[in-house]
Amino acid sequence: FSQRESVAVYWLMRESFERKDYPSAIQFADVLLRSRPQVVTQVMPTLARIAENKDANGELKKLLARNPPWRGLFFSNLLTNITDARTPLDLLLSIKDTSTPPTVADLRGYLNLLIQNKYYELAYYVWLQFLPREQLTGVGLLFNGSFEVQPSGLPFDWVVSPGSGVAIDLARRPDEPGQRALLVEFGHGRVNFRGIAQMVMLPPGSYQLRGEYKGQTVGRRGLEWHINCASGGKLIAKTPMATGSTPEWTEFTATFTI
Q1: Residue 65, φ and ψ in degrees, nearest 5
Q2: If 0-12 CB within 10 Å is exposed, 13-18 middle and 19+ buried, where does residue 155 land?
Q3: In angstroms, rounded to a whole number, what is the distance separating the alpha carbons of residues 224 and 242?
Q4: Alpha helices of 117-250 — where are they, by DSSP H?
Q5: How many CB atoms lie under 10 A from the CB of residue 12?
Q6: Neighbours of 45 (CB within 10 A)
């Protein structure tokens, strides 16, 4: 498409929208985004208004279910163009059971937006909706606590933040067949270790974080787990710091109250 043709298609999209001819508006938006994906920021306000109109978004859902090449761009840009935080959920659920369900990136962007705006309960509900059925039985206070499955990187599962000078992986435990442990290896010199974290939803009460570790840490500081409040980041509790050499599996605990 030339720029002149793109302007004409954009005008037709807007004109169709104003006439409430939503199928045509969606068709013109599709043409634009397939030929010139860089204009997504100009197209998204129109598509977002269609998405939030329950009488108009049926055709949009059908198109998204066919996984057009711009679908990832659509979901990442939708978040800054909506007025209702539940709009992306409606669209994501509409493609959940298709041959091309939402990607981890689609879900991560939406979940992070909800969390940033302190819609914690809605974020947790959304995460549960897209959790594989076989993993739902493992949902508890802490999800994937023994690293039974590869972390998805989504909130409410383990999020590993990459850093320099450190390698993070999952390893089989030779002493416990079928079980795995988190393996953290530090290189020599300065290390930028940004940690491993999981967001959890806990009702008021008393809790204990419990686990096991072994290894060797050389340096003035070791490793510890922190429990922080999502709103404000207040430190609630932390485990004793693991330092020096610990050749055998050793239990650590931290008791705290919500």
Answers
A1: -65, -25
A2: buried
A3: 6
A4: 120-129, 133-136
A5: 18
A6: 14
> How far is residue 67's CA from residue 56's CA, in Å, rounded to a whole number?
19
Phi, psi of 180 (to 5 degrees): -125, 165
Give pLDDT tens digits for 55-97: 999 999 999 999 999 999 999 999 999 999 999 999 999 999 9
Summarised one tens digit per residue, pLDDT across range 124-139 is: 999 999 999 999 988 9
Neighbours of 205 (CB within 10 A): 9
User: Dmax over Cα atoms in the chain, in whole Å?
Assistant: 72
The runs of H, that is alpha helices, within 84-198 are 87-94, 104-116, 120-129, 133-136
Alpha-carbon gap, residue 17 to 29, rounded angstroms:
10
pLDDT of 194 reads: 84
CA distance 46 to 237: 47
Nearest alpha carbon to residue 182 among 168, 195, 161, 193: 168
Cα-to-chain-centroid distance, residue 56: 28
